[in-house]
Protein 1
Amino acid sequence: MNANETLIELPSDLCPQKMPHHVAVIMDGNGRWAKRRGLPRIVGHQRGVDTLKELLRCCDDWGIKVLTAYAFSTENWGRPSHEVEFLLTLFERVLRRELAEMMRKNVRIRFLGDLKALPPSLQAEIAHAMEETRNNQGIQFNVATNYGSRQEIVQACKQIALKVKRGEIDVEDIDEQLFENHLYTQGISPPDLLIRTSGEMRLSNFLLWQMAYSEIYVTPTLWPDFDREEFHRALLSYQQRERRFGRIKEDD
Ligand code: IPE
Ligand code: IPE
Ligand code: MG
């Protein structure tokens, strides 16, 4: 979307000036969604993809510039191998299938995480999608895949330590900005709003550094049922928050 286009169907109770720039989502509850219907967990993951597609479309329509979705954590390798394999194959298939649509919608896709540990065929698909969409000017869509905040922070420390060791930087040069430049999210402003579905009140190793001041919204709705109305509710809640960043209101 460009600045001259009007926002499509932005609900009238949402203030266009107070929309979050960056929304992050922990897409949780696929397994429970399927289980409640007597279906295998993987069906929940399949439905979850549709939810994500719809959310991306909605963010684009409503003028949100960055969407980051947690697709696979460094801890998710601990699930049964058939589920892990299903998920990794699903990502590959969806990426291949959706690339043309992402190009049409001007989406710039980026993957966050330790991508080298992913199957080579998925890595190739990821590299292709990032390269193809690199110059797109529309919504930035980040997919955290084999992502874990602790791993991200440790690899940043290692990169920085190596630069100090080689004499490329001094210890005194290390500040928050330099540190951020070594995270997977380099160049991406921190999330303004985090949404977690399925009612769990935890971060599960997601963007720990980046979410120091994000507003958190948790809904009991399971991810496959998360729709525009739910997103609308999350945004309404966000717009009622007072983001103080440790300060106090001027008239207090
Ligand atoms: C989230 O749904 C998707 C991934 C973690 C890949 P879950 O698979 O965690 O679903 P629940 O939490 O077991 O219901
Ligand atoms: C978080 O969900 C990871 C993703 C959504 C990819 P989990 O289902 O893995 O988190 P826990 O185990 O409930 O903390
Ligand atoms: Mg879960």
Note: The chain has a mean pLDDT of 96.
Protein 2
Amino acid sequence: MSVPNYVFFRGRVVPYSDVKFGVLTHALNYGTAVFGGLRAYWNADEKQLFVFRPSDHFRRFLQSTKLMCMDLPSSGEELLKGLIDLIRAEGYKEDLYIRPLAFDADEIIGVRLHDLHPEVSIVVIPFGNYNKNEEGMHVTVSSWRRVDDNSIPARGKIAGAYVNSAFVKTDALRAGFDEAIVLNADGHISEGSAANFFLMRNGVFATPPITDNVLEGITRRTVMQLLRDELKTEVQERQIDRTELYLADEAFFCGTGAQISAITRVDYRPIGTGQLGAVTARLRAIFFDVVRGRIAKYRSWCCPVYESKQTATTKERSRVTVE
Ligand code: PMP
């Protein structure tokens, strides 16, 4: 992967190579950073790039910084404006992944959260699929357990906590699986290494509640709304037993990276028919239309990057607010 040309840093778009930090940087030593992950989707018909739900992503980013006692130098509005400036500077007209990062930049020894000085950066990179087999993943149930809210809160995107995800992912891949499902200490399903989890049994969808050590995913919220409003299916937020997986008719991961990735086998057991399920397939089709701004009803989730005749950029962006 080549590095970006630019980075949004200290409120400005600057050359990527201008930003340098020493090895003593607090976040590098202690994991005291939080990050976000957004996507922008290129709509070829409109020749427009749409950032998906940026206000929700920046709101969660700021909530993660709050958990980490970070007093940020930038507001959500400034970050969103900075992101648009950054993408325009890069000039991308293709699908992108966007990575905001807030990190404790002090070059000191001493583990803590308080009395530190966070910096904020954003970079964007061209990006395709995160998961190789989005239409049929073979997953395992990880032997690792999810970090607990009273250890490192999973509802924040806290850099240090992703070591938990890294253990999960590496062991799954090395064992020949595409990904893993992680259980909580009490044995109920939480999520994947970097995606929320849904299963369908008897036509009803279930996903773990936000009190079961999951990230409060924005794609999770999107999917719940699309399942209910577009596919007219019931969605329950409830604890899920491990063996419900074996009896599920359909299952999938969802997330900014994962998008909607069907799970078709768990530890060599087929889920449903062992093929991409009909409801998951329909959901994927609607989802990809929504994120590219093709469905008027959900157009307010899509923030246009470039000025164009078809999209009243300024007007649409002015509706996007970040608290
Ligand atoms: N859970 C974890 C642990 C994640 O890292 C992600 C990716 N951000 C998700 C769930 C999905 O969240 P979102 O839909 O907001 O990207």
Note: The longest helix spans residues 76-90.
